[in-house]
Design a protein that fits this description.
The chain is α+β, with helices and mostly antiparallel strands. It has 3 helices and 6 strands, in the order H-H-E-E-E-H-E-E-E. It starts with a helix and ends in a 22-residue tail after the last strand.
Length: 154
């Protein structure tokens, strides 16, 4: 009987620990780390907020663990933007690369983020090259629903 009481006690402690962990998680897609992924282009491209900006690349970042995404920090005349490009694996297959000091023109959807101005890129121009990343509705060209093909750079 004493052994059964100990087992029940440990099960109760384990249940409380698991419940506390679940309660501590972000409250949906608009909170916590999930918000950054959501706001970083996963379904947040809005054709109504598309704009074109020009500037200089000040930083190239590869972020994430499982699915690495490539972001550029671009300084324009008005602000410094975090520009969300797409998965590193997709970008590595393209002919265009990015480096600090590159002059770029980006057409993309501005998204609201409380800490930094952000733009989800639909296409990026560098010199006479154009890298298309999304269609006019914002659907990524690397989407699993689309046939796998190398997107030509104009």
């Amino acid at each position: 009987m004493k052994k059964m009481s100990r087992i029940m006690l440990w099960l109760g402690v384990l249940s409380l620990a698991l419940a506390a962990n679940a309660w501590a998680q972000p409250a949906g897609p608009g909170a916590g780390k999930g918000a950054m992924r959501q706001k970083a282009g996963m379904g947040m491209y809005d054709p109504k907020t598309v704009e074109t900006v020009s500037g200089e690349v000040t930083q190239v970042q590869t972020m994430g663990r499982r699915t690495r995404g490539v972001h550029l920090q671009v300084k324009t005349d008005k602000e410094t933007l975090l520009v969300v490009l797409g998965p590193a694996q997709y970008l590595e297959q393209q002919k265009m690369t990015f480096a600090v000091g590159d002059k770029v023109e980006i057409k993309g959807s501005r998204i609201q983020h409380p800490q930094q101005a952000m733009l989800v890129a639909g296409e990026v121009k560098k010199g006479d090259q154009v890298l298309k990343l999304r269609d006019d509705q914002g659907k990524p060209l690397w989407s699993p629903q689309m046939p796998k093909r190398k997107i030509p750079i104009e």
